[in-house]
Amino acid sequence: MSVSGQIVYWQVTNSGDLDLMTVDIAQPHQVRALISTTASERNGDVSPDGAWLAYESTESGRYEVYVRPFRTGTEGRMQISTSGGKQPRWAPSGREFFYFNDEGELMVVSMQTGGSPLKVGTPSKVLDAKYFAGEPGTNARTYDVAPDGRFLMIKNPAESSGGGDLPDHLVVVGNWREELKARLGGQ
């Protein structure tokens, strides 16, 4: 994730844990730890206004999603997920936040980020687990939220075909709305 000339990433520590790091693009030799604990933290995502950092951490014993101020440290940190959480992602509006729970369901939480403290809604399910949340052990986010607020999901092909190998290619369809209109007779 990049914000205001900074890149947020995670790296493996000497002890095998994961820490969230940041580097300023203008000063690439000045890497600093954002979150460095005995737990593993990964998949940092900065809110569109640059004020908040969402990430997943094992500090509770399993991965859960947390949000904290991006630039001011851990004060104001709060747990967002309620039944495990991974792959956090802010909506471009900054008013919603997505993640997968431990059941593989895509969850959404409403957010009011216009100040401190952060106002957080109750997580609710967007999609069932039949949509692809990644293979077990997947660390990186397997979906994204488009600028208009819609998002791309990838259905698990092994599940839909009754098992078997995953395909070795991906088909991307551009201008799908226009194609759909044409197939429906311009409706």
Task: Please explain how this structure is put together.
With 187 residues, the protein is mainly β. The protein has a single domain (2-183), classed as Neuraminidase. It contains two helices and 17 strands. Strands 9, 10, 11, 12 and 13 form a five-stranded antiparallel beta sheet that branches. The chain has a four-stranded antiparallel beta sheet with strand order 1-2-3-4, with no helix packed on it. Strands 5-6-7-8 form a four-stranded antiparallel beta sheet, with no helix packed on it. Strand 5 and strand 6 form a beta hairpin. The radius of gyration is 18 Å and the shape is globular. The mean pLDDT is 78.
Task: Give keywords.
Neuraminidase; mainly beta; 4-stranded antiparallel β-sheet; 2 helices; single chain; 6% helix; 187 residues
Structural class: mainly beta
Q: Could you give a short account of the major beta sheet?
A: 5 strands, antiparallel
CATH fold call: Neuraminidase
Q: Helical residue percent?
A: under 10%
Molecular shape? globular
Q: Whole-number average pLDDT?
A: 78
Q: What Rg is obtained from the alpha carbons, in whole angstroms?
A: 18 Å
Low-confidence stretches: none
Beta strand % = 35-45%
CATH class: Mainly Beta
Query: Could you give me the name of the CATH homologous superfamily?
Result: TolB, C-terminal domain
**How far apart are the termini?**
39 Å
Order of helices and strands: EEEEEEEEEEEEEEEEEHH
Strand segment tally: 17
Kindly report the oligomeric state of this protein.
single chain
Q: What is the overall number of helices?
A: 2
CATH architecture: 6 Propeller
Q: How many domains make up the coordinates?
A: 1
